[in-house]
């Protein structure tokens, strides 16, 4: 019995050490991945056309630095609907348009709101300008927390209306910046024939089931362009 207990105790210590080693390896890999992603960008030989997303409320952006990093374009995010507009958006848009970069705007779709007030915010904040890039509609939030409840069919109907209204204002087809969870819920890539913008750090995204135009390859790129990390994007031609 004593020998059996010693054998059992030895096995327990061995398992504990193995688990501790695996945890240590996992932590080390996560730390390496985090550090590597601070500066990682896709190879320009594979993706010659690259650019950045500037988040709503971002601190001062040096657009000339984005250009120096190899950026060809920037997309500026509008403030999420349902709250106060970003007071710095207009100045940020003017500065971006004065730079050598091509400029576009991303509108974050709110599935809890009707299309009309959302398109009104877009048309109020974004000028009609043929030089702007096609507008993008960001599809990330789900309708799970809406009050009152909103059905999936209603979300899809309002989204189509919003996209049509934004396209009418801009005079260009919109790009759908499609999140993986939104795609899983609504199959948007199948029901809406628009260019796609997918998001996945480091690994090429494949969740849409058809080719994409834009890929957000690094959501937290650390650069001298801003005190805040930026989202780095590449174009697939």
CATH level-4 homologous superfamily of the largest domain: Glycosidases
Q: How many domains make up the 3D coordinates? A: 2
Tell me the span between the first and last alpha carbons: 71 Å
Strand content: 15-25%
The main sheet orders its strands as 1-2-3-4-5-6-7-8
Rg over C-alpha atoms, rounded to the nearest angstrom: 22 Å
Strand-pairing-aware structural class = alpha/beta
The helix/strand series, from N terminus to C terminus, equals HEHEHEHEHEHHEEE
CATH topology of the largest domain: TIM Barrel
| Poorly predicted runs of 5 or more residues | 23-36
Spatial shape = globular
| CATH class designation of the largest domain | Alpha Beta
What is the level-2 CATH architecture name of the largest domain?
Alpha-Beta Barrel
Mean pLDDT: 89
Pick out its properties.
TIM Barrel, eight-stranded mixed barrel, 2 domains, globular, 237 residues, single chain
